[in-house]
From TrEMBL:
This is EamA family transporter. Pfam families: EamA (PF00892). InterPro entries: AA-Vitamin_Transporters, EamA_dom, EmrE-like. Its main location: membrane. It comes from Rhodanobacter humi.
Amino acid sequence: MIYVLASAICSVLVSVLLKLARRYGLDIGQAVAWNYVAAGALAALLLPAPLAPLRQAGAPWFALLGLGVLLPLIFLALGASVRHAGIVRSDAAQRLSLLLSLLAAFLLFGERLDATKALGCVLGLAALLGMVWRSERGHDANASARWLWPLVVFAGFGAIDVLFKRVAAAHVPLGTSLVAMFALALVVAFALAAWRAVRSGARFRLRNALGGLLLGLFNFGNILFYLRAHRALPQHPALVFASMNLGVVVLGALTGVLLFREQLSRINLAGLGLALLAIALLAWA
């Protein structure tokens, strides 16, 4: 289980870096672009990535192009969510996006819906509502951002997982698909960063590159350790899945509350508990 713990820690560290970005004057857009330099290079070096499957007639280029666009955009949305709503809500919303993956599995991939999965989905939706519930009163300009960005993260990561399933269904090796989508995401992310630089005069700085490379290290570490966990426990995929998602939610909550003093209402705490229960139910199902 050490690989699961390492993967969960890397996932939370990504959120921590995004949380600290503004404090240390990092441009998140530039950091996200450099993140894909590190993640793509590590994927090419450490995972088998034959290019032949991409030249076949049935290569899932539509899904790969969708991933290349969505990955940098959702990374920017995650950064905004962490900044406005905090690590606790953002990590929970990211993990609850599995509900959209399950919905796609029922509608697009022919998976059967049983009572346990249905209960897990209902609890997951209730958890999402509880996590993004805001009790602020008045005319706080950031109030809407505290629930809007976690919902964007929820929808974006759900869409990414569905596209990833499309790529997997085309039998493209994982290393190949990761290198392809990271390369496409790199082009999109740098195009966005260049557009922002021209529009606002933001300059490319070394500290943004260094921060982005560190971000890419943790981003890829999350993927690599998760894959190694599945290889170490090939007979227990549900255990790995549940441990990973529950671990990220719990570690994210502890980090947000203890390290960054994030405030959670009773409804938010109830939503967090429902998220843990929903993930456990869906993994058991």
